[in-house]
Please model this.
Amino acid sequence: MLFFLDTANLDQIREAKSLGILDGVTTNPSLMAKEGIVGEQKVYEHYKNICEIAEGPVSAEVISTDYEGIIREGKILSEIDENIVVKVPMIRDGIKALRWFSNQEISTNCTLVFSAGQAILAAKAGATYVSPFIGRIDDISWNGVELIRQIANIYAIQGFDTMILAASIRTPLHIVDCAEAGADVVTCPLNSILGLLKHPLTDIGLEQFLSDHRKLNS
Ligand code: E4P
Model:
């Protein structure tokens, strides 16, 4: 399973990269706004900077919601760097655009997916990645991880090669559950990835080892 970082923050991307566990990055307009990146040119420059650090797939989301606009924006984004993945919302014109990008061999990420039906449509349209938002599903008392399992099952039965990119990850346990449910990729905040490190028995065990070592070597 690949680890993407869900952020537009360059320091966090550098930190994940330095740990050696970063496979790629996803962004969205809210994450770009959070970093104070405003204006078309600034946004494009920021994507360029992210690509230089990440050295893997970087999802860059279109703002347009009509077919022509999505294609125009997606073409500009895809020319920023060979690792750019054009992120397209799960809407009618988005589906049409996914097919166009797929025919041009431009990588895509179909975002804002909340049902198995939407995931089937994204795969039929040739999306490279499909992004079910599991945290937001949990937020309304449905089961996000179960959706990952259902999509993984359907894609396996049908032989779809669209990759399942579990998004809207909120906790380390989401990552573990998504791995078990068949996600190909998880995109997460850095804290959720770092949370995987933690176990009290690791800390207790390490302290014991170091203390025993100190006793004999002091
Ligand atoms: C996915 O690509 C989105 O950027 C993201 O995972 C959304 O997460 P949120 O629900 O925490 O905003």
Notes: DSSP finds eleven helices and eight strands in the chain. The longest strand covers residues 84-89. The mean pLDDT is 97. The two ends are 44 Å apart (CA to CA).
